[in-house]
Design goal:
Layout (H helix, E strand, L loop, with lengths): L2 H20 L3 H8 L3 H8 L7 H11 L3 H5 L16 E5 L5 E9 L3 E9 L4 E4 L7 E8 L1 E6 L2 E6 L3 E5 L4 E4 L6 E8 L5
Antiparallel strand pairs: 1-2, 2-3, 3-10, 4-9, 5-8, 5-10, 6-7, 6-9
Helix pairs in contact: 1-3, 2-3, 2-4
Length: 190
């Protein structure tokens, strides 16, 4: 079975499990996540590979991390994620990418990401639920971070934090590749 098949089946099993655990109908989850009921049915039946944006919206609506949605199995208290098992969820032809390095529920989803943005590349993000906070640290290059229409420059060695409940974009407007590590904390669903 391919990695993609494993991810598709894990996503199907976990969306259905967490939707049921939260007491959400398909219609309720579709409304909370802003995705169609038909898309949720296809996901729960492992008949589609949804976009990263769709997976993020479903995770946010369920109050769980992408790591939990894609987890193959429940593991021990200590979980080591080998480098080759980090999940690349977005990439461009220019070589930009992000990788989900690790994640946990503490008390809501907490994720750690590794980003590479090539010169000229950018990645927009829809608003996350109220209370979501992102922390990032630039290790190489300079990040152009736009939050709710306002642009900020974050050079190598600097860090930034922001409430991510508004539209935001990560971009590399410089001449060299940009590398950063980012943590995302989403409040739990009550």
């Amino acid at each position: 079975m391919s990695d993609l098949d494993l991810l598709t089946q894990s996503l199907a099993r976990n969306v259905k499990r967490w939707r049921t655990e939260r007491g959400f109908t398909l219609d309720a989850l579709a409304a909370r996540a802003g995705v169609s009921r038909g898309m949720l049915i296809q996901i729960e039946q492992a008949r589609t590979n949804p976009s990263l944006g769709t997976v993020v919206k479903i995770g946010d609506a369920l109050g769980i991390s992408i790591t939990t949605l894609l987890d193959y199995e429940q593991g021990p208290t200590v979980r080591i994620v080998p480098a080759e098992q980090a999940v690349r969820l977005w990439h461009t032809d220019a070589g930009s990418y992000n990788r989900l390095l690790a994640g946990t529920e503490a008390p809501g989803p907490l994720e750690m990401w590794d980003w590479l943005l090539m010169p000229g590349d950018g990645s927009p993000s829809d608003p996350h639920p109220a209370g979501t906070v992102e922390l990032l640290h630039v290790t190489r290059g300079e990040l152009t971070l736009t939050v709710d229409g306002e642009e900020y420059r974050v050079p190598a060695g600097a860090s930034a934090s922001f409430e991510a409940n508004t539209p935001h974009t990560y971009a590399n407007t410089g001449e060299v590749p940009l590398e950063m590590v980012m943590a995302v904390s989403v409040p739990g669903v009550h």
